[in-house]
């Protein structure tokens, strides 16, 4: 099991300025590099306090790459529906070069109706632009004189510069929320996977991962593929302190998400089956049940170790866990302490390495 650090800003200007949040997040990214965490990941969202401080994860990850030397930088995820594939392939290739081959390129479909409306993209185009965007980037990274005709229109022949640092291209990750079919498609294509346990059941996530692994193996791809699972994490020496913070910031997270998805109460899309129930699911959030179901990592080191042991049993010991330690307005010293405590007292139980050994890799 590997561990990384994820950033999903669930706050707005009334709570903390964007530059302050970026500064604090960069401090945490540098610390994660020093402590031996495997990756730093950033989301793409727009407009609202639910992720709106991150309209371009590539910009943030470029700043991370400039300040670090070892840790991988992960888009979690960029949205092909909102960016022309030539622009997207070029931005990611630049980051791969600036990081000297530390990029993992994660792609997602997006799901907030207001974002699609702002870009003038119908939600019915998200699936095809997602698939086309990934394939167009792959072709632009690996071939010369590329021509393309699809939903984004036509381009070419063009030869992308710069070429990616990693050959033939950066590892490609596909973000999936609830669909076993999407996971199977990713496995069949030989891509890697990003999932979030918050909005689905343990049983459904197990089915998603099984579909991914089976399809990948059946297609003859080498290795099991890499799976990143994202969790908020509240860790302190005193379990009461950690759980108090967890309750506060998880409810803030839910409040921000409920506002961002409110339009799903009236929006319907055949490409997003079941999303009309999303508002009710979020409104019915139960913090204590979420902790008991290991959808949130919270407590002292022993408690979080127990949670991760269950997660490894459920989803496989080879998954990579992405930890968000500064959701909402978590004070920077608390987030730094959680990162250090996790590296010292939790991670070694799953990696078999001390903090010193991890940092020296």
TrEMBL record:
Tell me any Pfam family this protein matches: Bac_luciferase
One GO molecular function term? oxidoreductase activity
Q: Where is the Luciferase-like domain?
A: 1-313
> Does the keyword field hold Oxidoreductase?
yes
EC number(s) in its UniProt entry? Answer: 1.-.-.-
Enumerate the UniProt keywords alphabetically. Monooxygenase, Oxidoreductase
The organism sits in which domain of life? Bacteria
SUPFAM superfamilies, sorted: Bacterial luciferase-like
Protein name from the UniProt record:
LLM class flavin-dependent oxidoreductase
Recall the taxonomic lineage recorded for the source organism.
Bacteria, Bacillati, Actinomycetota, Actinomycetes, Micromonosporales
């Amino acid at each position: 099991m590997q561990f990384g650090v994820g950033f999903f800003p669930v706050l707005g200007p009334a709570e903390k300025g964007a530059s302050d949040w970026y500064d604090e997040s960069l401090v945490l990214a540098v610390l994660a590099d020093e402590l031996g965490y495997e990756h730093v990941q950033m989301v793409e969202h727009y407009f609202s306090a639910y992720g709106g401080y991150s309209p371009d994860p590539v910009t943030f990850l470029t700043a991370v790459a400039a300040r670090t030397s070892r840790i991988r930088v992960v888009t979690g995820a960029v949205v092909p529906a909102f960016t022309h594939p030539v622009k997207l392939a070029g931005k990611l290739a630049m980051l791969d070069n600036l990081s000297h081959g530390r990029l993992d390129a994660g792609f997602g479909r997006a799901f907030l109706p207001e974002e699609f409306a702002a870009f003038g993209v119908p939600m019915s185009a998200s699936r095809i632009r997602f698939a086309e965007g990934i394939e167009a980037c792959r072709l632009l990274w690996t071939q010369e004189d590329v021509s393309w005709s699809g939903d984004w229109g036509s381009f070419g022949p063009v030869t992308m510069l710069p070429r990616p640092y990693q050959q033939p291209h950066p590892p490609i990750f596909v973000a999936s929320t609830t669909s076993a079919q999407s996971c199977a498609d990713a496995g069949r294509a030989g891509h890697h996977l990003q999932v979030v346990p918050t909005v689905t059941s343990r049983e459904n996530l197990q089915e998603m991962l099984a579909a991914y692994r089976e399809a990948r193996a059946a297609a003859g791809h080498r290795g099991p593929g890499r799976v990143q699972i994202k969790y908020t994490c509240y860790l302190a020496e005193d379990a009461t302190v950690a759980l108090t913070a967890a309750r506060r910031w998880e409810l803030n997270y839910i409040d921000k998400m409920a506002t961002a998805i409110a339009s799903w109460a009236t929006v319907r899309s055949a490409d997003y089956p079941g999303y009309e129930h999303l508002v009710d699911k979020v409104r019915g959030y139960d913090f204590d049940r979420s902790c008991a179901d290991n959808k949130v990592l919270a407590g002292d080191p022993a408690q979080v170790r127990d949670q991760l042991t269950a997660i490894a049993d459920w989803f496989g010991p080879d998954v990579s866990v992405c930890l968000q330690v500064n959701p909402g307005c978590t004070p920077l010293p608390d987030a730094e302490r959680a990162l250090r405590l996790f590296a010292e007292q939790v991670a070694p139980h799953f990696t078999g390495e001390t903090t010193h050994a991890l940092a020296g890799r």
